[in-house]
Amino acid sequence: MSYEVIGQCVCPLCHSEYKQEVRLSEKSRKPYLNCEECGMQLFARQARSVKLLNELASSGQPSKIKAVEPKPSTIPAPKPAPAQVIVEKPKVLPIEKKPEAAPVKPEEKTIFDHLFWGA
Questions:
Q1: pLDDT tens-digit profile of 9-60?
Q2: Cα angle 97, 102, 105; round to 5
Q3: What is the distance between the alpha carbons of residues 38 and 51, in angstroms, rounded to a whole number?
Q4: Distance in angstroms (rounded) separating the CA atoms of residues 27 and 113
Q5: What's residue 65's pLDDT?
């Protein structure tokens, strides 16, 4: 993979004693820095950062351009969540159990016995 070296500079993160190469990317032709000491990669994405990284590569020192305050966000603040209504569950009354029929003793004859067996 071939690349074009446009300059060298000290890594802005680790300030290693070795000058790192500032290169141009093949696709976008924008400068980037890859520090071999700390592994940081620095990519220029906008016109201002391209200008600053080019200055850094040509001089080897950070430029003296003043920092720009970030623009306020245009994203509206999220709306608060609606209040939660707590609904109590109705109390369930216990079901009354019907009394169980008394078991028929084997010696007693039932109406079933009289009707079907003629006993």
A1: 888 788 877 788 888 888 888 888 888 888 888 888 888 888 888 887 777 6
A2: 160
A3: 24
A4: 101
A5: 52
